[in-house]
């Protein structure tokens, strides 16, 4: 029998199996414990008419942070973050879950924030966007002759020590990123900018476009020793794989699932997302190179013991491709958790780039002059990989 109590009234050791939110009207959202294993507890975020979100949470403290520090969107774009009930079960009836068994095959811990005052979120975002999916790692390894680098990008997201080793290796061998010897509060870069330096040094061909007009920019890349390197641009003679990125600065540009440039076809693989509102970056990637299944990782959450979130947007039977793409894009406004900061202000990481005031106005009604037609301050870098259609 499950009994429900208000959040904050639980006792240490209580077997929490459900989290029920009553923050929003017209949308049902709750979190359910699915499975326990030696690495943590597997939870599902369930909401009416939305794909289920899956993640692993490690420890009671992490579960408390999951509730306190983040809000979760329902079908109406309302943030669930308060009026919370916990389901307590005295019996341990959690069994193996079929979906979790599949996710465990590719799930990673992500790279945690270096410290509470670090600006190292860019590194976590870059690694997740570029190294989570094997197909992306294979692009780097196609051009890289550095066996140590190739080894580290394969394991950097699995263990914190490996992520830190990669961070130091990139700085001391490629002059990329923050000096590991400096104070953490001095950390802070842009994930894509640093990755482009690596591309330049390894000879990875990459196209860089600015949204919304998709204009080319081809300036050299500069490392931390202030040395400039020419960035290789792919063309129809390029034999190996290549990358394309679209930089979105304060625009509501909508990514295409496929793009063609200089005779090469590209497919969307990942995105690095940064919010100027709270000064933080996160990374998202396809799980398997296919557009339906995605994962998103936040370095702050990883530091708390909250793992990456996985979801799947399946094309419905008889659903027209344009309808599917529209629904797929709209889900990006609902799947990513909202960070609560500065006394429950909302930090929105959706690449839809809503006006900064939109979510708070919907949840609290405290922004009467909010105009969602205005672009917000979320900046996204969409990463594409070449493929033969």
Helix content: 10-25%
Give the overall silhouette: globular
Supply Rg: 21 Å
Structural class based on helices, strands and sheet pairing: alpha+beta
Number of strands: 21
Uncertain stretches = none
According to CATH, what is the class of the largest domain? Answer: Alpha Beta
Main sheet attributes: strand count, strand direction, barrel closure: 9 strands, mixed
Q: Provide the domain count.
A: 2
Work out the strand percent: 25-35%
Detailed description of the structure:
This protein has helices at residues 60-68, 98-103, 121-131, 134-143, 147-155, 160-174, 191-202, 299-304, 321-331, 358-364; strands at residues 2-6, 16-21, 29-37, 40-47, 53-57, 70-73, 79-80, 84-89, 206-210, 215-216, 221-222, 228-229, 243-248, 258-261, 264-275, 280-286, 293-297, 309-312, 338-341, 345-347, 378-386. By secondary structure, it is α+β, with helices and mostly antiparallel strands. The chain folds into two domains: 2-97; 121-386, Cathepsin B, Chain A, CATH 3.90.70. Strands 9, 10, 13, 14, 15, 16, 17, 18 and 21 form a nine-stranded mixed beta sheet that branches. A six-stranded antiparallel beta sheet has the order 1-8-2-3-4-5, with helices on one face. The chain is globular. It starts with a strand and ends with a strand. The model has no long low-confidence stretch (mean pLDDT 93).
């Amino acid at each position: 029998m499950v009994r429900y109590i208000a959040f904050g009234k639980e006792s240490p050791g209580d077997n929490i199996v459900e989290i029920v939110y009553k923050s929003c009207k017209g949308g049902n959202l709750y979190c359910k414990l699915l499975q326990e294993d030696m690495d943590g507890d597997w939870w599902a975020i369930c909401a009416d008419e939305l794909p289920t979100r899956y993640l692993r949470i490690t420890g009671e403290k992490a579960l408390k942070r999951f509730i306190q520090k983040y809000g979760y969107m329902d079908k109406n774009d309302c943030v669930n973050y308060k009026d919370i009930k916990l389901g307590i079960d005295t019996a341990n009836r959690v069994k193996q879950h079929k979906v979790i068994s599949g996710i465990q095959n590719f799930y990673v811990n992500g790279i945690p924030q270096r410290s509470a005052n670090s600006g190292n979120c860019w590194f976590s975002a870059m690694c997740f966007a570029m190294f989570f999916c094997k197909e992306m790692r294979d692009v780097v390894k196609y051009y890289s002759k550095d066996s140590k680098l190739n080894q580290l990008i394969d394991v950097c997201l699995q263990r914190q020590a490996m992520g830190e080793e990669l961070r130091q290796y990139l700085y001391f061998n490629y002059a990329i990123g923050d000096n590991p010897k400096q104070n953490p509060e001095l950390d802070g870069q842009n994930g894509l900018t640093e990755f482009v330096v690596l591309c330049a040094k390894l000879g990875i061909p990459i196209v860089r476009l600015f949204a919304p007009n998709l204009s080319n920019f081809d300036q050299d890349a500069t490392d931390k020793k202030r040395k400039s390197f020419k960035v290789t641009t792919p063309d129809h003679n390029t034999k190996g794989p290549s990358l394309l990125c679209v930089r979105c600065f304060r625009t509501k540009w909508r990514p295409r699932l496929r793009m063609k440039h200089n005779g090469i076809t590209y497919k969307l693989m990942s995105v690095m997302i940064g919010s100027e509102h709270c000064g933080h970056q996160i990374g998202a990637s396809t799980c398997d190179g296919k557009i339906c299944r995605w994962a998103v990782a936040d370095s702050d959450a990883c530091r708390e013991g909250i793992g990456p979130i996985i979801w799947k947007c399946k094309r419905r039977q008889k659903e027209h491709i344009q309808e599917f793409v529209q629904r797929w894009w709209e889900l990006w406004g609902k799947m990513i958790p909202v960070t609560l900061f500065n006394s429950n202000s909302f930090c929105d990481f959706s690449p839809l780039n809503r006006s900064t005031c939109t979510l708070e106005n919907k949840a609290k009604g405290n922004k009467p002059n909010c105009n969602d037609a205005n672009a917000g301050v979320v900046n996204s870098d969409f990463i594409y990989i070449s493929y033969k259609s």
